[in-house]
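ok so for the tutorial part 2 we go from a plain amino acid sequence to predicted structure tokens. step 1 is just haveing the sequence, like this:
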Amino acid sequence: MANLASTYSAQERWVDAERLEVQVLEISSKTLGAAHPSTLIGISNLAVTYQHLGRLQEAERLNLREIEISAKVLGSDHPFKLAHLDNLATTYQLQERYVEAESLQVQMVDLSRKVRGAEHPYTLIYMSNLAWTHSQGGHWDKAEVLHQRVLEVNLRVLGADDSKTLLSKANLAAAYRNLGRSGEAKELDEQVAEGLKKISDQEHANAPS
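step 2 — the prediction. this is what the tokens look like for a chain of 209 residues:
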């Protein structure tokens, strides 16, 4: 049943997925217990489905439930907590509750640095997500600082022409534009265009004839 629900989700058949996920969660809660990892996964999956269905209050309720359970079972610094916080932050973003989303994302960045390291790919993703939330609140100065940090790491670790580095440059360029620094934004935009052309040319060169 859980596998079929996953298939429906992959097909974006959210109503069908929700119907099965409710059943899976009920069975898991009764047979395995509310704190079992499989039950937590069921809560998380159903919350994501509710997000896609626009049932955001129900999604939030489940998000808070999974955070509470995981904190009791796994502890406050367990890496799995990051996924649960991310789910709730997404729900807040969909509700345009950016201040609350930002508070969670700050926690996520700090925790990810602690348990995974400052340059771990997931830490960089959480930093980029926090920067996006700052931008939604009009705090482009804060967004610029985070985008700059992510770009510096990607340049050093991945190189100038990696797709993730190019995305970091595009994000930083957007921040520059909104801060009135059009010259710096244009320079980065040109670097992004050049990098994308290199990637496209390489893909064509490697394509079977």
